[in-house]
Amino acid sequence: MGPQKTIDAEEIVVIGLGHVGLPLAAALAGAGHRVLGIDVDRDHLADIHAGSIRIHEPGLTDLIAEGLASGRLRTAAAIPASLCVRIYIVTVGTPVHEDKSCSLDALRDAVREIARRMRPDDLVILRSTVKPGVARSLVVPMLERTGKTFGFAVCPERIVEGQALRELHTIPQIIGAADPASALRAETLFASLGVDIVHVPDVESAEMVKLINNMARDLNFALTNEIAAICDTLALDASAVIHAAVHGYKRTDLPSVGLVGGPCLSKDTYIFQSAFAGTGFEPQLTWVARQINEAMPKRGAAAIAGLLTPRFHSAGMVRVALLGLAFKGRPATADVRGTMAVPFMSALQSRLPGAVFIGFDAEVRDGDIRALGVEPASSIEQAVDGAALTVILNNHERFDRLDLDALAGRMVAGGVIYDFWPCTDRAGPLAGAVDYVAYGEGSQLQNTVFARTDDGGQSQIGN
Protein backbone atom coordinates (compact mmCIF):
# COMPACT_ATOMS: atom_id res chain seq x y z
CA MET A 1 0.00 0.00 0.00
CA GLY A 2 1.13 3.53 -0.56
CA PRO A 3 0.07 7.16 -0.97
CA GLN A 4 -3.30 7.67 -2.64
CA LYS A 5 -5.01 10.42 -4.57
CA THR A 6 -8.24 12.25 -3.84
CA ILE A 7 -11.26 11.18 -5.90
CA ASP A 8 -12.02 13.20 -9.03
CA ALA A 9 -14.75 11.62 -11.18
CA GLU A 10 -13.11 8.22 -10.99
CA GLU A 11 -14.61 5.05 -12.43
CA ILE A 12 -16.23 2.91 -9.73
CA VAL A 13 -16.81 -0.82 -9.93
CA VAL A 14 -19.38 -2.37 -7.55
CA ILE A 15 -18.99 -6.14 -7.37
CA GLY A 16 -22.18 -7.95 -6.40
CA LEU A 17 -25.54 -6.45 -7.42
CA GLY A 18 -27.71 -7.89 -4.68
CA HIS A 19 -29.67 -6.11 -1.98
CA VAL A 20 -26.52 -4.25 -0.88
CA GLY A 21 -24.68 -3.62 -4.13
CA LEU A 22 -27.47 -2.67 -6.53
CA PRO A 23 -28.95 0.18 -4.44
CA LEU A 24 -25.42 1.47 -3.78
CA ALA A 25 -24.49 1.37 -7.48
CA ALA A 26 -27.70 3.20 -8.42
CA ALA A 27 -27.23 5.80 -5.66
CA LEU A 28 -23.62 6.50 -6.66
CA ALA A 29 -24.65 6.86 -10.31
CA GLY A 30 -27.42 9.19 -9.19
CA ALA A 31 -24.80 11.26 -7.36
CA GLY A 32 -22.94 11.75 -10.64
CA HIS A 33 -20.33 8.95 -10.52
CA ARG A 34 -19.54 6.59 -13.38
CA VAL A 35 -20.42 3.14 -12.06
CA LEU A 36 -20.01 -0.34 -13.47
CA GLY A 37 -21.98 -3.02 -11.62
CA ILE A 38 -20.62 -6.55 -11.77
CA ASP A 39 -22.70 -9.67 -11.15
CA VAL A 40 -22.14 -13.24 -12.33
CA ASP A 41 -25.91 -13.84 -12.66
CA ARG A 42 -26.62 -12.89 -16.28
CA ASP A 43 -30.38 -13.36 -15.83
CA HIS A 44 -30.27 -10.81 -13.01
CA LEU A 45 -28.39 -8.38 -15.26
CA ALA A 46 -31.01 -8.86 -17.98
CA ASP A 47 -33.76 -8.13 -15.45
CA ILE A 48 -31.96 -4.95 -14.38
CA HIS A 49 -31.89 -3.66 -17.95
CA ALA A 50 -35.49 -4.73 -18.54
CA GLY A 51 -36.70 -2.81 -15.50
CA SER A 52 -37.81 -6.03 -13.81
CA ILE A 53 -35.51 -6.22 -10.80
CA ARG A 54 -36.07 -8.81 -8.09
CA ILE A 55 -35.27 -6.41 -5.26
CA HIS A 56 -38.15 -4.52 -3.66
CA GLU A 57 -36.90 -1.03 -2.85
CA PRO A 58 -39.04 2.11 -3.29
CA GLY A 59 -37.63 4.27 -6.08
CA LEU A 60 -34.90 1.83 -7.10
CA THR A 61 -36.35 0.84 -10.48
CA ASP A 62 -36.64 4.49 -11.55
CA LEU A 63 -33.16 5.37 -10.28
CA ILE A 64 -31.64 2.45 -12.17
CA ALA A 65 -33.48 3.47 -15.33
CA GLU A 66 -32.12 7.01 -15.00
CA GLY A 67 -28.60 5.73 -14.47
CA LEU A 68 -28.74 3.39 -17.46
CA ALA A 69 -30.22 6.08 -19.70
CA SER A 70 -27.56 8.60 -18.72
CA GLY A 71 -24.73 6.10 -19.20
CA ARG A 72 -23.49 6.67 -15.66
CA LEU A 73 -24.62 3.17 -14.69
CA ARG A 74 -23.58 0.10 -16.64
CA THR A 75 -23.48 -3.60 -15.85
CA ALA A 76 -21.33 -6.57 -16.82
CA ALA A 77 -20.73 -10.18 -15.76
CA ALA A 78 -16.97 -9.57 -15.38
CA ILE A 79 -14.56 -6.64 -15.12
CA PRO A 80 -13.41 -5.66 -18.64
CA ALA A 81 -9.63 -5.76 -19.07
CA SER A 82 -9.65 -2.37 -20.78
CA LEU A 83 -11.59 -0.52 -18.08
CA CYS A 84 -9.65 2.19 -16.25
CA VAL A 85 -11.02 1.63 -12.74
CA ARG A 86 -9.99 3.70 -9.74
CA ILE A 87 -12.30 2.35 -7.01
CA TYR A 88 -13.55 -1.17 -6.37
CA ILE A 89 -16.37 -1.80 -3.88
CA VAL A 90 -16.97 -5.42 -2.84
CA THR A 91 -20.55 -6.15 -1.76
CA VAL A 92 -20.84 -9.89 -2.34
CA GLY A 93 -22.73 -12.05 0.13
CA THR A 94 -21.09 -13.99 2.96
CA PRO A 95 -23.75 -16.57 3.85
CA VAL A 96 -23.39 -19.26 6.47
CA HIS A 97 -23.41 -22.96 5.68
CA GLU A 98 -25.72 -25.45 7.39
CA ASP A 99 -23.06 -25.91 10.07
CA LYS A 100 -23.18 -22.10 10.57
CA SER A 101 -19.64 -21.55 9.30
CA CYS A 102 -19.26 -18.48 7.10
CA SER A 103 -18.71 -18.94 3.37
CA LEU A 104 -16.05 -16.60 1.97
CA ASP A 105 -16.02 -18.20 -1.48
CA ALA A 106 -17.70 -15.27 -3.26
CA LEU A 107 -15.43 -12.82 -1.43
CA ARG A 108 -12.30 -14.70 -2.52
CA ASP A 109 -13.54 -14.80 -6.11
CA ALA A 110 -14.25 -11.06 -6.11
CA VAL A 111 -10.87 -10.13 -4.61
CA ARG A 112 -9.09 -12.50 -6.99
CA GLU A 113 -10.75 -10.73 -9.94
CA ILE A 114 -9.81 -7.32 -8.55
CA ALA A 115 -6.21 -8.44 -8.11
CA ARG A 116 -6.08 -9.42 -11.78
CA ARG A 117 -7.47 -6.11 -12.99
CA MET A 118 -6.40 -3.40 -10.56
CA ARG A 119 -3.81 -0.78 -11.42
CA PRO A 120 -1.39 1.02 -9.12
CA ASP A 121 -3.04 3.31 -6.57
CA ASP A 122 -6.57 1.91 -7.02
CA LEU A 123 -8.76 1.97 -3.91
CA VAL A 124 -10.45 -1.26 -2.76
CA ILE A 125 -13.41 -0.97 -0.38
CA LEU A 126 -14.79 -3.98 1.46
CA ARG A 127 -18.50 -3.61 2.23
CA SER A 128 -19.41 -7.28 2.75
CA THR A 129 -20.08 -8.52 6.29
CA VAL A 130 -17.16 -10.45 7.77
CA LYS A 131 -15.75 -11.19 11.20
CA PRO A 132 -13.02 -8.91 12.56
CA GLY A 133 -9.70 -9.85 11.01
CA VAL A 134 -10.85 -11.11 7.60
CA ALA A 135 -9.82 -7.94 5.77
CA ARG A 136 -6.28 -8.00 7.17
CA SER A 137 -5.75 -11.77 7.05
CA LEU A 138 -7.43 -12.60 3.73
CA VAL A 139 -8.30 -9.65 1.51
CA VAL A 140 -5.22 -7.44 1.95
CA PRO A 141 -2.70 -10.30 1.45
CA MET A 142 -4.44 -11.34 -1.78
CA LEU A 143 -4.06 -7.78 -3.08
CA GLU A 144 -0.50 -7.39 -1.80
CA ARG A 145 0.62 -10.40 -3.81
CA THR A 146 0.11 -8.33 -6.97
CA GLY A 147 3.09 -6.18 -5.98
CA LYS A 148 1.08 -3.03 -6.74
CA THR A 149 0.38 -0.11 -4.42
CA PHE A 150 -3.28 0.25 -3.50
CA GLY A 151 -5.59 1.88 -1.02
CA PHE A 152 -7.86 -0.14 1.22
CA ALA A 153 -10.83 0.56 3.51
CA VAL A 154 -13.64 -1.31 5.20
CA CYS A 155 -16.92 0.59 4.84
CA PRO A 156 -19.74 -1.65 6.10
CA GLU A 157 -23.32 -1.26 4.96
CA ARG A 158 -25.96 -0.79 7.66
CA ILE A 159 -29.09 -0.12 5.62
CA VAL A 160 -32.49 -1.71 6.23
CA GLU A 161 -34.06 -3.56 3.33
CA GLY A 162 -37.06 -1.62 2.08
CA GLN A 163 -35.45 1.73 2.95
CA ALA A 164 -32.12 1.32 1.20
CA LEU A 165 -32.14 4.45 -0.94
CA ARG A 166 -33.29 6.69 1.89
CA GLU A 167 -30.76 5.28 4.33
CA LEU A 168 -27.85 5.42 1.85
CA HIS A 169 -28.37 9.18 2.03
CA THR A 170 -29.00 9.44 5.79
CA ILE A 171 -27.20 6.69 7.78
CA PRO A 172 -23.66 7.74 8.81
CA GLN A 173 -20.97 5.81 6.96
CA ILE A 174 -18.37 3.98 9.04
CA ILE A 175 -14.86 4.02 7.57
CA GLY A 176 -11.92 2.00 8.82
CA ALA A 177 -8.96 2.48 6.49
CA ALA A 178 -5.47 1.07 6.15
CA ASP A 179 -3.93 4.54 5.91
CA PRO A 180 -4.99 8.22 6.02
CA ALA A 181 -5.01 8.64 2.25
CA SER A 182 -7.36 5.69 1.82
CA ALA A 183 -9.59 7.11 4.56
CA LEU A 184 -9.75 10.43 2.71
CA ARG A 185 -10.66 8.84 -0.60
CA ALA A 186 -13.37 6.69 0.98
CA GLU A 187 -14.72 9.72 2.84
CA THR A 188 -14.88 11.78 -0.33
CA LEU A 189 -16.76 9.00 -2.09
CA PHE A 190 -19.44 8.44 0.54
CA ALA A 191 -19.72 12.13 1.39
CA SER A 192 -21.04 12.57 -2.17
CA LEU A 193 -24.19 10.78 -0.93
CA GLY A 194 -24.66 13.49 1.70
CA VAL A 195 -24.03 11.34 4.78
CA ASP A 196 -21.98 11.99 7.88
CA ILE A 197 -18.69 10.10 8.04
CA VAL A 198 -17.52 8.26 11.16
CA HIS A 199 -13.88 7.18 11.12
CA VAL A 200 -12.74 4.29 13.29
CA PRO A 201 -9.10 3.50 14.13
CA ASP A 202 -8.62 0.45 11.90
CA VAL A 203 -10.28 -2.01 9.53
CA GLU A 204 -11.07 -4.47 12.34
CA SER A 205 -13.09 -1.81 14.17
CA ALA A 206 -15.14 -1.19 11.04
CA GLU A 207 -15.78 -4.92 10.62
CA MET A 208 -16.90 -5.04 14.25
CA VAL A 209 -19.30 -2.10 14.03
CA LYS A 210 -21.55 -3.84 11.52
CA LEU A 211 -21.78 -6.94 13.69
CA ILE A 212 -22.50 -4.86 16.81
CA ASN A 213 -25.39 -3.09 15.10
CA ASN A 214 -27.04 -6.31 13.99
CA MET A 215 -26.39 -8.19 17.23
CA ALA A 216 -27.89 -5.31 19.22
CA ARG A 217 -31.06 -5.60 17.16
CA ASP A 218 -31.10 -9.37 17.57
CA LEU A 219 -30.67 -8.96 21.34
CA ASN A 220 -33.51 -6.45 21.56
CA PHE A 221 -35.86 -8.69 19.60
CA ALA A 222 -34.82 -11.67 21.73
CA LEU A 223 -35.67 -9.83 24.96
CA THR A 224 -39.17 -9.10 23.68
CA ASN A 225 -39.63 -12.67 22.46
CA GLU A 226 -38.41 -14.06 25.77
CA ILE A 227 -40.96 -11.85 27.52
CA ALA A 228 -43.61 -13.27 25.17
CA ALA A 229 -42.62 -16.84 26.07
CA ILE A 230 -42.75 -15.94 29.77
CA CYS A 231 -46.19 -14.38 29.33
CA ASP A 232 -47.41 -17.48 27.52
CA THR A 233 -46.26 -19.58 30.47
CA LEU A 234 -47.96 -17.28 32.99
CA ALA A 235 -51.08 -16.81 30.83
CA LEU A 236 -50.45 -13.08 30.46
CA ASP A 237 -50.92 -10.89 27.39
CA ALA A 238 -47.38 -9.99 26.26
CA SER A 239 -48.52 -7.19 23.96
CA ALA A 240 -50.40 -5.49 26.78
CA VAL A 241 -47.51 -5.97 29.19
CA ILE A 242 -44.93 -4.59 26.75
CA HIS A 243 -47.13 -1.66 25.74
CA ALA A 244 -47.58 -0.71 29.39
CA ALA A 245 -43.86 -1.12 30.12
CA VAL A 246 -42.73 1.25 27.36
CA HIS A 247 -45.55 3.80 27.46
CA GLY A 248 -44.05 7.11 28.57
CA TYR A 249 -40.99 5.32 29.95
CA LYS A 250 -38.04 6.11 27.70
CA ARG A 251 -35.56 3.98 29.61
CA THR A 252 -37.26 0.81 28.35
CA ASP A 253 -37.25 0.42 24.58
CA LEU A 254 -38.78 -2.82 23.35
CA PRO A 255 -39.92 -3.79 19.85
CA SER A 256 -43.09 -5.76 19.20
CA VAL A 257 -43.23 -9.54 19.48
CA GLY A 258 -42.40 -11.31 16.23
CA LEU A 259 -40.32 -13.75 14.24
CA VAL A 260 -36.72 -12.70 13.62
CA GLY A 261 -34.98 -13.82 10.45
CA GLY A 262 -33.47 -12.46 7.28
CA PRO A 263 -30.09 -12.68 5.59
CA CYS A 264 -28.28 -10.63 8.26
CA LEU A 265 -29.68 -11.23 11.73
CA SER A 266 -29.91 -14.97 11.15
CA LYS A 267 -26.19 -15.25 10.37
CA ASP A 268 -24.22 -12.36 11.87
CA THR A 269 -24.10 -13.82 15.38
CA TYR A 270 -22.51 -16.96 13.94
CA ILE A 271 -20.00 -14.84 12.01
CA PHE A 272 -19.19 -12.98 15.23
CA GLN A 273 -18.85 -16.17 17.30
CA SER A 274 -16.40 -17.62 14.78
CA ALA A 275 -13.97 -14.78 15.50
CA PHE A 276 -13.24 -16.30 18.92
CA ALA A 277 -12.38 -19.83 17.87
CA GLY A 278 -9.21 -20.87 19.70
CA THR A 279 -9.07 -17.73 21.86
CA GLY A 280 -10.44 -19.28 25.04
CA PHE A 281 -13.21 -16.67 25.14
CA GLU A 282 -16.78 -17.48 24.16
CA PRO A 283 -19.38 -14.68 24.05
CA GLN A 284 -22.58 -15.73 25.83
CA LEU A 285 -25.27 -13.07 25.56
CA THR A 286 -25.42 -12.78 21.78
CA TRP A 287 -25.46 -16.55 21.44
CA VAL A 288 -28.39 -16.96 23.84
CA ALA A 289 -30.32 -14.21 22.02
CA ARG A 290 -29.94 -16.01 18.72
CA GLN A 291 -31.16 -19.28 20.24
CA ILE A 292 -34.24 -17.54 21.67
CA ASN A 293 -35.16 -16.09 18.28
CA GLU A 294 -34.50 -19.35 16.47
CA ALA A 295 -36.74 -21.25 18.92
CA MET A 296 -39.83 -19.18 18.09
CA PRO A 297 -40.97 -21.18 15.04
CA LYS A 298 -40.72 -24.43 17.04
CA ARG A 299 -42.61 -22.95 20.00
CA GLY A 300 -45.34 -21.72 17.71
CA ALA A 301 -45.58 -25.04 15.88
CA ALA A 302 -45.86 -26.91 19.18
CA ALA A 303 -48.66 -24.62 20.37
CA ILE A 304 -50.50 -24.98 17.08
CA ALA A 305 -50.22 -28.76 17.07
CA GLY A 306 -51.59 -28.81 20.60
CA LEU A 307 -54.61 -26.81 19.45
CA LEU A 308 -55.27 -28.63 16.17
CA THR A 309 -54.63 -32.27 17.08
CA PRO A 310 -57.72 -32.64 19.31
CA ARG A 311 -59.86 -30.95 16.66
CA PHE A 312 -58.72 -32.83 13.56
CA HIS A 313 -58.08 -36.47 14.40
CA SER A 314 -57.56 -37.58 10.81
CA ALA A 315 -53.98 -38.26 9.76
CA GLY A 316 -54.86 -36.99 6.29
CA MET A 317 -54.15 -33.68 4.63
CA VAL A 318 -54.36 -30.47 6.65
CA ARG A 319 -54.45 -27.31 4.54
CA VAL A 320 -52.28 -24.56 6.05
CA ALA A 321 -52.42 -20.96 4.81
CA LEU A 322 -49.23 -18.96 5.33
CA LEU A 323 -49.55 -15.17 5.19
CA GLY A 324 -46.28 -13.30 4.71
CA LEU A 325 -43.42 -15.36 3.24
CA ALA A 326 -40.79 -12.60 3.09
CA PHE A 327 -38.48 -12.53 6.09
CA LYS A 328 -40.16 -9.34 7.30
CA GLY A 329 -43.19 -7.23 6.49
CA ARG A 330 -42.01 -3.76 7.49
CA PRO A 331 -40.42 -2.16 5.62
CA ALA A 332 -41.89 -4.32 2.87
CA THR A 333 -39.46 -6.59 1.05
CA ALA A 334 -39.58 -9.45 -1.46
CA ASP A 335 -36.57 -11.13 0.14
CA VAL A 336 -37.16 -14.69 1.37
CA ARG A 337 -33.57 -15.33 2.45
CA GLY A 338 -33.64 -16.34 6.08
CA THR A 339 -37.43 -16.42 6.18
CA MET A 340 -38.81 -18.06 9.30
CA ALA A 341 -41.44 -19.77 7.15
CA VAL A 342 -38.94 -22.54 6.41
CA PRO A 343 -38.13 -23.62 10.00
CA PHE A 344 -41.77 -23.14 10.94
CA MET A 345 -42.98 -25.48 8.18
CA SER A 346 -40.38 -28.05 9.14
CA ALA A 347 -41.39 -27.92 12.81
CA LEU A 348 -45.10 -28.11 12.00
CA GLN A 349 -44.75 -31.02 9.58
CA SER A 350 -42.87 -33.02 12.21
CA ARG A 351 -46.04 -32.78 14.33
CA LEU A 352 -48.64 -32.68 11.56
CA PRO A 353 -47.21 -34.78 8.70
CA GLY A 354 -50.31 -34.17 6.58
CA ALA A 355 -49.80 -30.41 6.44
CA VAL A 356 -49.78 -28.87 2.96
CA PHE A 357 -48.89 -25.22 2.57
CA ILE A 358 -50.54 -22.48 0.51
CA GLY A 359 -49.04 -19.02 0.84
CA PHE A 360 -49.74 -15.39 0.05
CA ASP A 361 -47.27 -12.53 0.02
CA ALA A 362 -47.98 -9.24 -1.72
CA GLU A 363 -44.29 -8.67 -2.49
CA VAL A 364 -42.73 -12.08 -3.18
CA ARG A 365 -42.72 -13.61 -6.66
CA ASP A 366 -44.62 -16.85 -7.20
CA GLY A 367 -41.45 -18.65 -8.25
CA ASP A 368 -39.73 -17.72 -5.00
CA ILE A 369 -42.74 -18.90 -3.01
CA ARG A 370 -42.75 -22.25 -4.81
CA ALA A 371 -39.02 -22.61 -4.11
CA LEU A 372 -39.91 -22.64 -0.40
CA GLY A 373 -42.20 -25.63 -0.91
CA VAL A 374 -45.36 -23.50 -0.77
CA GLU A 375 -48.09 -23.23 -3.39
CA PRO A 376 -48.62 -19.51 -4.12
CA ALA A 377 -52.08 -17.96 -3.82
CA SER A 378 -53.15 -14.82 -5.67
CA SER A 379 -54.94 -13.36 -2.65
CA ILE A 380 -55.34 -13.76 1.08
CA GLU A 381 -58.83 -15.13 0.50
CA GLN A 382 -57.62 -17.79 -1.92
CA ALA A 383 -54.95 -18.85 0.56
CA VAL A 384 -57.34 -19.35 3.47
CA ASP A 385 -60.16 -21.02 1.53
CA GLY A 386 -60.68 -24.43 3.15
CA ALA A 387 -57.70 -24.04 5.50
CA ALA A 388 -57.72 -25.64 8.93
CA LEU A 389 -54.90 -23.32 9.97
CA THR A 390 -53.94 -19.80 8.94
CA VAL A 391 -50.58 -18.48 10.16
CA ILE A 392 -49.51 -14.83 10.04
CA LEU A 393 -45.72 -14.99 9.64
CA ASN A 394 -44.74 -11.36 9.15
CA ASN A 395 -46.04 -7.89 9.95
CA HIS A 396 -46.88 -6.57 6.49
CA GLU A 397 -49.27 -3.62 6.71
CA ARG A 398 -51.95 -5.57 4.83
CA PHE A 399 -52.35 -7.81 7.86
CA ASP A 400 -53.27 -4.85 10.07
CA ARG A 401 -56.59 -4.60 8.25
CA LEU A 402 -57.59 -8.25 8.21
CA ASP A 403 -61.29 -8.98 8.65
CA LEU A 404 -60.81 -12.01 10.86
CA ASP A 405 -64.47 -13.03 10.85
CA ALA A 406 -64.49 -13.00 7.04
CA LEU A 407 -61.32 -15.09 6.91
CA ALA A 408 -62.68 -17.50 9.52
CA GLY A 409 -65.80 -17.93 7.41
CA ARG A 410 -63.63 -19.28 4.58
CA MET A 411 -61.81 -21.78 6.80
CA VAL A 412 -63.03 -25.16 7.95
CA ALA A 413 -65.04 -25.19 11.16
CA GLY A 414 -62.92 -25.48 14.29
CA GLY A 415 -59.82 -24.09 12.61
CA VAL A 416 -57.19 -21.76 14.07
CA ILE A 417 -55.73 -18.40 13.02
CA TYR A 418 -52.29 -18.18 14.63
CA ASP A 419 -50.56 -14.80 14.69
CA PHE A 420 -46.82 -14.57 15.40
CA TRP A 421 -47.04 -10.76 15.37
CA PRO A 422 -50.20 -9.93 17.37
CA CYS A 423 -51.46 -7.80 14.44
CA THR A 424 -54.85 -7.31 16.08
CA ASP A 425 -56.28 -7.23 19.59
CA ARG A 426 -59.12 -9.52 18.55
CA ALA A 427 -59.09 -12.78 20.52
CA GLY A 428 -61.35 -15.74 21.11
CA PRO A 429 -63.81 -17.57 18.83
CA LEU A 430 -64.66 -16.24 15.38
CA ALA A 431 -67.13 -17.36 12.74
CA GLY A 432 -67.32 -21.13 12.33
CA ALA A 433 -65.85 -21.75 15.79
CA VAL A 434 -62.46 -20.66 14.46
CA ASP A 435 -60.10 -19.38 17.16
CA TYR A 436 -57.66 -16.48 16.88
CA VAL A 437 -54.51 -17.12 18.90
CA ALA A 438 -51.49 -14.82 19.13
CA TYR A 439 -47.96 -15.69 20.19
CA GLY A 440 -47.28 -14.44 23.70
CA GLU A 441 -50.89 -13.80 24.66
CA GLY A 442 -51.19 -16.46 27.32
CA SER A 443 -53.32 -18.82 25.25
CA GLN A 444 -51.19 -21.93 25.62
CA LEU A 445 -52.26 -22.65 29.19
CA GLN A 446 -55.87 -21.55 28.73
CA ASN A 447 -55.55 -18.53 31.01
CA THR A 448 -54.30 -20.50 33.99
CA VAL A 449 -51.75 -18.64 36.10
CA PHE A 450 -49.64 -20.20 38.82
CA ALA A 451 -48.49 -18.06 41.74
CA ARG A 452 -45.99 -19.23 44.36
CA THR A 453 -47.35 -19.44 47.88
CA ASP A 454 -45.52 -18.58 51.08
CA ASP A 455 -44.84 -22.26 51.84
CA GLY A 456 -43.06 -22.76 48.50
CA GLY A 457 -45.96 -24.52 46.83
CA GLN A 458 -48.08 -23.25 43.97
CA SER A 459 -51.65 -22.03 44.05
CA GLN A 460 -53.79 -21.72 40.97
CA ILE A 461 -55.38 -18.34 40.35
CA GLY A 462 -57.62 -17.43 37.46
CA ASN A 463 -59.20 -19.82 35.03
From TrEMBL:
Protein origin, superkingdom: Bacteria
Protein name per its UniProtKB record: UDP-N-acetyl-D-mannosaminuronic acid dehydrogenase
Keyword Oxidoreductase: yes
Organism: Eilatimonas milleporae
Claim: Lipoprotein is one of the keywords in the record: no
GO biological process: polysaccharide biosynthetic process
Membrane spanning residue stretches: none
Residues annotated as domain UDP-glucose/GDP-mannose dehydrogenase C-terminal: 321-426
Keywords: NAD, Oxidoreductase
MF term (GO), any: oxidoreductase activity, acting on the CH-OH group of donors, NAD or NADP as acceptor
Similarity-based family: Belongs to the UDP-glucose/GDP-mannose dehydrogenase family.
UniProt signal peptide: none
